[in-house]
Write a structure and sequence with these properties.
The protein is mainly alpha-helical and 287 residues long. It is built from 16 helices and no strands. Helix 6 crosses helix 7. It is globular, with a radius of gyration of 19 Å. The N and C termini lie far apart (57 Å). The structure holds zinc ion (2 copies).
């Protein structure tokens, strides 16, 4: 059995093993050497964050039984998408697909911060008053559905090999859990890894309550996009231990830590002057 066949036939087992494996390793690491003290109970966060993750995977499976793999197989069978149209060596197609899909995820992440109605959905991810391995998979159900649709559209245009889609989804899931973890790598290792991938210290800055810090480090896997597009930030002003995690105005535990609060959070509050709606420069903005 070659590598492709192995991935295709064991796809579900691979997915679950990576999810459970990353959760176990990072979860243990957080207990042994936490980067920051948690502000709320770990039991409540795990039950509610993971509860939302299970609810989402159930709904997604119900809505899109064929999932991204089904769309990729369909595109391949019909010759749809750039990589199915041109004669590209298989391995090149796999690598290009994984990198291209990561770039789309980066753009999608910038988009959900910039467009006010999408920020309402995405703020469920940011409202978490702490970040740990479970935050990496905590997204509002509608944002997950929207992500799926964007992914389907990407696949139809790109025509990635089915295996590339599986590799990307497994990697994204494991990497998101890794870089949301409440852990710290040795400084030198963190610096070296950051030339290629997003580390926990790099992504934590994105969860700051400070708007300018939250509007930086949008990458989930590869760290190049933030560097290339000018959204990279090295360290939080308050330091990793001193910075505040979460979002302004939303800090009631029932809103931000409990599953019913997370599901209704996008529908709360007035249309804010967030990001693109904020059309006037504040004091001190010179660029
Ligand atoms: Zn974000
Ligand atoms: Zn995040």
């Amino acid at each position: 059995m070659d590598f492709n066949e192995f991935i295709m036939t064991n796809e579900k087992v691979i997915r679950i093993s990576f999810f459970v494996g990353t959760l176990a390793i990072m979860g243990l690491w957080e207990i042994v050497a936490p980067r920051r003290a948690l502000t709320a109970s770990k039991a409540i966060r795990w039950v509610n964050n993971l509860g939302l993750v299970f609810l989402n995977s159930f709904i997604v499976r119900f809505l899109f039984p064929a999932a991204a793999i089904g769309v990729a197989s369909f595109a391949a069978a019909n010759g749809w998408g750039l990589l199915n149209y041109y004669e590209v060596p298989y391995i090149v197609a796999v690598v290009v697909s994984v990198i291209a899909m990561d770039f789309i995820i980066y753009l999608q992440h910038v988009l959900v911060h910039a467009v006010p109605i999408l920020w309402r959905l995405h703020r469920v991810h940011h409202a978490d008053p702490d970040i740990d391995v479970t935050t990496g998979a905590r997204f509002h159900t509608i944002e997950i559905i929207l992500s799926m649709l964007i992914k389907f559209a990407t696949i139809v245009v790109l025509g990635p090999p089915v295996v590339a889609v599986i590799i990307f989804e497994v990697l994204l899931n494991a990497m998101a859990m890794f870089n949301h973890s409440n852990v710290g790598l040795p400084k030198t290792l963190d610096t070296i890894l950051r030339f290629f991938i997003v580390t926990p210290d790099m992504h934590r800055i994105h969860h700051s309550v400070e708007d300018d810090e939250a509007n930086s480090n949008f990458g989930f896997n590869i760290s190049w996009w933030d560097r290339l597009f000018g959204t990279y930030r090295d360290q939080p002003r308050g330091g990793h231990k001193g910075m505040t995690i979460g979002i302004h105005k939303f800090n009631k535990p029932s809103d931000v830590s409990w599953i019913h609060g997370m599901l209704t959070l996008p529908f709360k509050g007035k249309i804010s002057s967030y990001a693109i709606n904020r059309r006037q420069w504040g004091d001190g903005d010179s660029e």
